[in-house]
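sry for the spam today, last one i promise. struct tokens for design, 371 residues
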């Protein structure tokens, strides 16, 4: 594949990157588990004819890439490749492999179905798309574990990115790193993803912070095919940074054990067919993040406590999706009633919601070439 703007005359094949949305935590698994869902971030990457790329537009002159974007976030996402999260991540990964810039004459059409800042893993998907983009543009042939290392230098918690990369119901941990590796993995985000000035000096991009090897590890659990996901999505954004800012540094042993007990049960309970609502409802309760985030999401405790398997047949369990504000209900039926009753509770708090019935997808991210 093309890795620099030089004189290659063969046109590289176009390709499409597809990354699923994810719901992290699933109640007790804060920063540990994620589920991939059937909403997608799709990048269609097209290489201009080599003849036409000899006369690029001014945007191409500075970056080599033209970015077109439609769908969720279109009115707020930066189209400058040096500011856009996906292309910044791609450039970071390329720089770590001694490729200082994008190839010339590349256009990327982005179609995004994942709403921003709602707890459905939009940033994790953008980061994984960036890693896959660099891998393809630079012909890097990175193993998936190495891709995760790069994603973790940006996203820092593994639940969304691991599930977006490999797909399904995924459990992950960060390896305990030695001092040097900890320092390497803890560089400020601004150094990993500087807002590259196109006219930067000769040293620009020469010393990117390369991730240590094997930061993140994952396993894929089985999920019963009977289970669907109802995403109840409030019409406001809540940044993950803000939703992490309200969490305490320390927890009581009682709350820790409460979550560990439930997470252990949940990982197997979701695989059983038919799924057991009584077991799953209890196993999706949490004392580590949801109680603290209720101040940012009016209606959260009411929705999770008043929609139960007894009141709503078909419901299995209900929790905050990621950092919120979306509510995730896992269910085998009764989808509309679950969503509409959640809508009523939110509307009493003056919050409008949209809802979507989603599949749990097992495929993870993909790159497909056009032949
Ligand atoms: N497709 C995208 N392209 C560029 N930037 C994106 C894209 N998707 C998300 N982002 C950036 O990520 C931000 C949202 O990230 P944030 O971590 O706050 O929420 P989230 O990932 O949607 O939710 P959660 O992490 O709780 O699942 C957006 O405001 C935007 O800056
Ligand atoms: N585990 C993360 C997911 C959101 O990125 C959190 O809840 O903050």
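last one done:
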């Amino acid at each position: 594949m093309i890795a620099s703007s030089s004189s290659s005359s063969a046109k590289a094949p176009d390709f499409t990157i597809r990354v699923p949305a994810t719901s992290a935590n699933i109640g007790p698994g804060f920063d540990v588990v994620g589920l991939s869902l059937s909403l997608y971030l799709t990048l269609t990457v097209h290489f201009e004819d080599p003849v036409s790329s000899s006369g690029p537009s001014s945007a191409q002159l500075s970056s080599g890439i033209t970015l077109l974007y439609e769908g969720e976030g279109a009115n707020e996402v930066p189209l400058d490749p040096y500011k856009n999260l996906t292309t910044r991540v791609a450039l970071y990964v390329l720089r770590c492999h001694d490729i200082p810039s994008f190839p010339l004459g590349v256009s990327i059409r982005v179609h995004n179905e994942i709403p921003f800042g709602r707890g459905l893993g939009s940033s994790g998907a953008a980061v994984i798309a960036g890693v896959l983009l660099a891998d393809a543009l630079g012909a890097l042939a990175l193993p998936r574990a190495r891709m995760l290392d790069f994603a973790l230098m940006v996203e820092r918690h593994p639940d969304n990115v691991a599930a977006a990369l490999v797909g399904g119901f995924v459990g992950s941990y960060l390896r305990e790193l030695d001092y040097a590796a900890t320092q390497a993995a803890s560089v400020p985000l601004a150094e990993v993803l500087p807002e590259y000035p196109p006219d930067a000096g000769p040293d620009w991009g020469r010393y990117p912070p390369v991730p240590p090897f094997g930061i993140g590890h994952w396993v894929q659990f089985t999920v019963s095919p009977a289970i669907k996901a109802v995403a109840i999505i409030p019409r406001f954004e809540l940044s993950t940074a803000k939703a992490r800012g309200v969490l305490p540094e320390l927890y009581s042993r009682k709350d820790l054990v409460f979550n560990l007990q439930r997470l252990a049960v949940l990982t197997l309970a979701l695989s059983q067919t038919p799924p057991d609502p009584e077991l799953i409802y209890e196993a999706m309760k949490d004392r580590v993040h949801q109680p603290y985030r209720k101040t940012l999401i009016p209606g959260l405790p009411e929705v999770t406590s008043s929609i139960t398997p007894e009141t709503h047949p078909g419901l299995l369990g209900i929790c905050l999706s990621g950092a919120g504000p979306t509510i995730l209900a896992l269910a085998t039926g009764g989808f509309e009633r679950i969503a509409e009753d959640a809508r009523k509770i939110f509307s009493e708090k003056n919050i409008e919601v949209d809802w979507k019935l989603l599949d749990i997808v097992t495929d993870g991210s993909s790159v497909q070439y056009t032949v």
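The two ends are 14 Å apart (CA to CA). ok im logging off now
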